[in-house]
Amino acid sequence: MSDIVLAVLNARYSHTALGVRYLLANLGELREQAVLEEFLIVDDPQRIVERILRHQPRIVALSLSIWNVAPSRRVIALLKQIDPAIKVVVGGPEVRFTEQPEVDADVVVRGEGEVVFPGICADLLAGRSVAAIVDGVLPDVDQLVLPYDDYSDEDIRQRIIYVESSRGCPFRCEFCLSSMDKKVRRFALEPLLAAFERLIARGCRCFKFIDRTFNLDLTTCQRLLDFFYERWPRDAAGALVSPEMSRQVAQGVDRNDSFFLHFEMVPDRFDENLLDGLARFPAGGVQLEVGVQTLDPEAGRRISRRIDAEATARNIGLIRQRTGAHIHADLIVGLPGEDVAGFARSFDELRAMGPHEIQVGILKLLPGAPIARHVEPHAMRFNPQPPYDVLQTDCIPFQRMQELKRFARYHDVFVNSDRFAGAMAALMDTAASAFAAFDAFAQWVFAETGQDHAINQQRQYRLVMSYLCDRQGMLAERVAALLIEDFLRHGLRRYLPECLRPFEQRPEPTR
Known about the structure:
By secondary structure, this protein is an alpha/beta fold. It has helices at residues 18-25, 45-53, 69-82, 117-125, 153-158, 189-201, 218-231, 243-248, 272-279, 297-302, 309-322, 340-353, 398-416, 421-428, 434-449, 457-471, 476-488; strands spanning 4-10, 34-40, 59-63, 87-91, 107-110, 133-135, 161-163, 166-167, 185-186, 206-209, 260-265, 286-293, 326-333, 357-362, 381-382, 390-392.
């Protein structure tokens, strides 16, 4: 039995919820009366409620985000039907800046909740009244109990471990809720590194930093990189173990797995020390999420985002040349005042810089985000339900926006997956515009399939081969050679897609 259940519906099993772990770790005297339950957004709401009610809670606290608000509302409705006496407390990004949250909760916490949540629980458990909306208090982060010991052994073995060394963002990009933060707050390094040391001792090898700008303070950034470099698993010869080396070790053998580190960095803030620090790590051991969003200075000005395209191009090039870091760069479709031609220019310029992935995101109107000021001037229309994605603007009509959303989805499937690297290079890198080339392919794929998801891998290979041969005029033997090479980098020869088997070169039989 637990008086307080902290619950969250994650998008995937691999995801873990850091925010609710902070709440749990900072409950003080109530810590022993609380339990954490994590679910998936695809789980049956009645099963979720059944598991929550097994604890016989008096308070259920749910973290609401853009991806889980709809199923969370169903869970809350069921809780209220079954046991109206349970007090429901909600918080999280979905209600952070909302004036009248559309959720049937007894208490809504807006903003960071570690400071106010224990008092709310104490009052509710004592039968005292609590305001329907409670504004969170920005904590002194060095006074917080760090939550990393609340990751379970199963979390460490099988899931992504999220960590942070700072909160807040110095930039004011209007599409992002972090633009509302008052200041950047950094955690003291010694307690933080001690917590990371304990995670490593328990077997943690995957650290995903959620800092909005990890390379804001280059000295702190370098010290954290030094920490992981010094503890990185090494082989018998003393060389750092790479993710690829780890995958090649036979099942059942002590793997000595490589670390995997993920950081969000701004692309125009790299110095020689940072580049040298990244260069020490093996290929694929570090992933950099680089927020570009747009390379159009005018589009950037409208959304209060400073852009230095020259520095971005230089640094992406240096990262590719001097380090083994995997670069994941972001672009956004649907920014106010940016038409398709403007987005295409940004896409083409960014692809020419050579990141490993370009994540094409669709603009969203997050509750409370300052970009709302552009809605009427630019005739922007957004989905009123999560994920609040843009439907049309004065520059991009609805039908074209739909095509661009499919462009983003297919780009993940055919380009970012890296399964068709050679074939996609043949399609995009020889064209006058990489965007135009892939846009035409995306529109053809949808016309052929009527699907933007659940296209099986066999069909993906058939589609690429058909398009490059029939629409681009490439020789079937050349296309097949590219696709076979692509496939063999990821698959086993005996599972070669059927459309490629007639082109497979088999060795001559020996006599």
